[in-house]
Structures are given as C-alpha cells and as structure tokens.
C-alpha cells in the first residue's frame, strides 16, 4: 500500500500514537514516510499538532497539515466558528496523492471517527479514502463499549466499498480488565478484519528513541512489525470462571 488512511472508533482512542508507531515501523523497514493530518483542531497556531507529534516520536517523516482550527470540535464546526474555509475530501485526496509520488508510504490521519464532517456538504474521511482507493486502518479502544463502535465503523466502511485493513488497539492497559481481555477475541469477529497490533497505554510518553525501538513489536507483519496476534491473545486471555 502507498496510502493508508487511519481513523478511530471515536476521539481519544490513540490514533496519533498508532500513526506514529506505523510510521516508525515503516521507517525501520527502510521506507520513506509522509504523514498528512487532514484537519487539525484544538491547537493554537504556535502549538505542535498531531503531525508534528508523529514526527517527534517516529523520526524522519514528512509532516503535513491541510488546515488548523483553534477550537477542539469537529472540523466542519471548528471551521465555521473560526470563520475559516473548511477542508474538503478532494483536497485531502489530492494532497495525499501528491505525497505518494514522493514517498513509499503516506499515512492520512483523520479527526475523531470515520464520519466526522470536514465540510458543510457532509464530506468525511471515508470520502477521501474512496477517492484514493486506500485501505483504512481502524484504531479502537480496548475496553467495554469498543465492540459496538468497532462494528459500526467496519459496517460503514463495507457499505461504502472501502477496504478495512485491520484493527489496532490504541491503548492496551497495563492491567487489562475482563472486558478488554475478552475483546481480543471478539474485536476481529465483529469487525470481520484482523487485529494488526496493540499499543501499550502511555507509549506516547516514551522518549523518541525508546518509542522507535519498541514500535515494531506492537504491530503485525502486515504493518512491517513483528507483533503476533495469536500469541498476544493466548498470553492475555481471561481464565475460565
């Protein structure tokens, strides 16, 4: 794949850290990487955004951002309130396609979930993925409630004829509860797609060197890593009551 779209089942599920892990792992495999943040919200002009955070953690990536809005809202809402032009899916697709001519891998990170609106016409990250014919990686939370949001996201992708590359758990807790452990088996079932990784909670706080060294161990071979879903599930599986 030359372009991979990364979305989440909602906000605060670990999209940016997962994007950084995918980037770091691809760099370690000798690939050139660009990261495109379609719409950055909730940061001031002088603050680093998500693309900059990916570059800080992952290393030598090309970081790009199409638009920035100060309030932490959905992009269409944030653009309207700021009196600024919105981002349209075709602009996201065009920017990603251009980056793909210069890099082995382009990671397009969305804002929030798959159907968060970019513009008043209802354009979304899913529309950009369709224009790019790009697979979509879904970042999910570990615990209670994730099965519903993951299945809804997977169903929407399939309804739109989009390729669901797989699921990555964005923040695996150090002491997972019963729901999290059971979800390891249930997530690929409800999504109809494989688990492609699990990023430990707090990984974004690691030093860049430690993050880059560890990242390949969090992701499956399809993402250039060494993570083994079956072995992880066996290790973390709940004991029978």
TrEMBL record:
<comment type="similarity">
    <text>Belongs to the dethiobiotin synthetase family.</text>
</comment>
<keyword id="KW-0479">Metal-binding</keyword>
<keyword id="KW-0067">ATP-binding</keyword>
<dbReference type="InterPro" id="IPR004472">
    <property type="entry name" value="DTB_synth_BioD"/>
</dbReference>
<comment type="subunit">
    <text>Homodimer.</text>
</comment>
<feature type="binding site">
    <location>
        <begin position="109"/>
        <end position="112"/>
    </location>
    <ligand>
        <name>ATP</name>
    </ligand>
</feature>
<feature type="binding site">
    <location>
        <begin position="170"/>
        <end position="171"/>
    </location>
    <ligand>
        <name>ATP</name>
    </ligand>
</feature>
<keyword id="KW-0460">Magnesium</keyword>
<feature type="binding site">
    <location>
        <position position="50"/>
    </location>
    <ligand>
        <name>Mg(2+)</name>
    </ligand>
</feature>
<comment type="pathway">
    <text>Cofactor biosynthesis; biotin biosynthesis; biotin from 7,8-diaminononanoate: step 1/2.</text>
</comment>
<comment type="function">
    <text>Catalyzes a mechanistically unusual reaction, the ATP-dependent insertion of CO2 between the N7 and N8 nitrogen atoms of 7,8-diaminopelargonic acid (DAPA, also called 7,8-diammoniononanoate) to form a ureido ring.</text>
</comment>
<feature type="binding site">
    <location>
        <position position="50"/>
    </location>
    <ligand>
        <name>ATP</name>
    </ligand>
</feature>
<keyword id="KW-0963">Cytoplasm</keyword>
<feature type="binding site">
    <location>
        <position position="16"/>
    </location>
    <ligand>
        <name>Mg(2+)</name>
    </ligand>
</feature>
<feature type="active site">
    <location>
        <position position="37"/>
    </location>
</feature>
<keyword id="KW-0547">Nucleotide-binding</keyword>
<feature type="binding site">
    <location>
        <begin position="200"/>
        <end position="202"/>
    </location>
    <ligand>
        <name>ATP</name>
    </ligand>
</feature>
<feature type="binding site">
    <location>
        <position position="41"/>
    </location>
    <ligand>
        <name>substrate</name>
    </ligand>
</feature>
<feature type="binding site">
    <location>
        <position position="109"/>
    </location>
    <ligand>
        <name>Mg(2+)</name>
    </ligand>
</feature>
<feature type="binding site">
    <location>
        <begin position="12"/>
        <end position="17"/>
    </location>
    <ligand>
        <name>ATP</name>
    </ligand>
</feature>
<keyword id="KW-0436">Ligase</keyword>
<dbReference type="InterPro" id="IPR027417">
    <property type="entry name" value="P-loop_NTPase"/>
</dbReference>
<dbReference type="Pfam" id="PF13500">
    <property type="entry name" value="AAA_26"/>
</dbReference>
<dbReference type="GO" id="GO:0004141">
    <property type="term" value="F:dethiobiotin synthase activity"/>
</dbReference>
<protein>
    <recommendedName>
        <fullName>ATP-dependent dethiobiotin synthetase BioD</fullName>
        <ecNumber>6.3.3.3</ecNumber>
    </recommendedName>
</protein>
<keyword id="KW-0093">Biotin biosynthesis</keyword>
């Amino acid at each position: 794949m030359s372009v991979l779209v990364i979305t989440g089942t909602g906000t605060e599920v670990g999209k940016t850290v997962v994007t950084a892990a995918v980037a770091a792992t691809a760099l370690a495999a000798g690939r050139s990487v660009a990261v495109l943040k379609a719409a950055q919200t909730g940061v001031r002009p002088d603050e680093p955004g998500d693309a900059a955070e990916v570059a800080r953690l992952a290393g030598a990536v090309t970081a790009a951002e199409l638009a920035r809005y100060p309030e932490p809202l959905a992009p269409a809402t944030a653009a309207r309130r700021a009196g600024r032009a919105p981002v349209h899916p075709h602009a996201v697709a065009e920017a990603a396609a251009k980056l793909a001519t210069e890099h082995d891998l382009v990671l397009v990170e969305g804002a929030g979930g798959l159907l968060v609106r970019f513009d008043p016409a209802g354009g979304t990250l899913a529309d950009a993925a369709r224009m790019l014919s790009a697979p979509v990686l879904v970042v999910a939370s570990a615990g209670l409630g994730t099965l519903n949001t993951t299945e809804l996201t997977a169903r929407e992708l399939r309804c739109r004829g989009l390729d669901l590359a797989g699921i990555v758990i964005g923040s695996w807790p150090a002491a997972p509860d019963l729901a999290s452990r059971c979800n390891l088996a249930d997530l690929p079932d409800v999504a109809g797609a494989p688990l492609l990784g699990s990023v430990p909670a707090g990984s974004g706080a690691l030093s860049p060197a430690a993050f880059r060294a560890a990242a390949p161990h969090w992701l499956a071979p399809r993402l250039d890593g060494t993570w083994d879903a079956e072995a992880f599930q066996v290790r973390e599986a709940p004991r029978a009551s």
